[in-house]
Amino acid sequence: MDEIQYQRRSPEDVRNRVVPKIEPLPALAKEAINILRGNIQLSGMDLKTIAITSTFANEGKSSTAFWLAKSLAGLKKRTLYLDCDIRNSITLNRYDIQLDTPGLTEFLCGQAALLDIINRTDDKYFDMVFTGAVAPNPSELVSSPLFNKMMIYLRDKYDYVIVDVPPIMPVIDGLLIAKQCDGAVFVVESGETDRNEALKAKKKMEYAGIRILGTVLNKAGGGSRYGRYGYGKYGYGYGKYGYGYGEEKDEKK
Asked: Which H or E run contains 189?
């Protein structure tokens, strides 16, 4: 890794700081996120880089990824939220983050050092990396050796890296990124995600050799504890919110 500027600064000396503006989770949603966190912790000590994805946009993956990362940081685990949805990220807007520093795209294009794109937050256990500039070739960037080296480095430096991954069906990016993680959590939206399309997405992940940790049933109402989907190790639904906090349709996440 000597050709990459990993060590311009140590992780403890990262200077970039952001303060996400967030609303507290409703009690049921917080409980569900904590259960998701517990299930992941019980799935093995080798799970450190975890992809959060979905079939299509608008199903709750980004909210699930963010709150899972925050929940892990709440246990005093060094946690990084890594936004890899280069084509369609809304993280900066959602949390009203004003940022003029480089992001993932700039690093993968060789225009920034890795530690220059890591942002500290007001939680000392919670760091964030944003996508940076929109790139014309996201698939090539995330399939590059540099991306793989970055994941190896982050896995070594953090207790958990929660990776916000593009949805599986529209583009190949999601598979390429999730393949480089220790496992993936698959988010489906109760009453909205098409069962057949979800099963196709699941098969794509299996064919790619991605370890599917389980399924999150987002925005779950009453009814079956396990929702409508029979695959995965867990798929609890809790009231209106399920595991996720819910997504606004116009946010494309």
From this structure: strand 183-189
The pTM for the full model equals 0.84
Q: Contact 30/63 with Cβ under 8 angstroms?
A: no
pLDDT single digits (tens) 4-36 = 444 444 445 556 889 999 988 889 889 999 999
- Contact present, 141 and 132 (Cβ < 8 Å): no
Of 228, 51, 49, the C-alpha closest to 150 is 49
3-state secondary structure of 162: strand
Residue 246 backbone zone (phi > 0: left; psi -120 to 50: alpha; other: beta)? left
Half-sphere exposure of 122 (CA within 13 A, CB side): 5
Least Cα distance to 137 among 113, 172, 169 occurs for 172
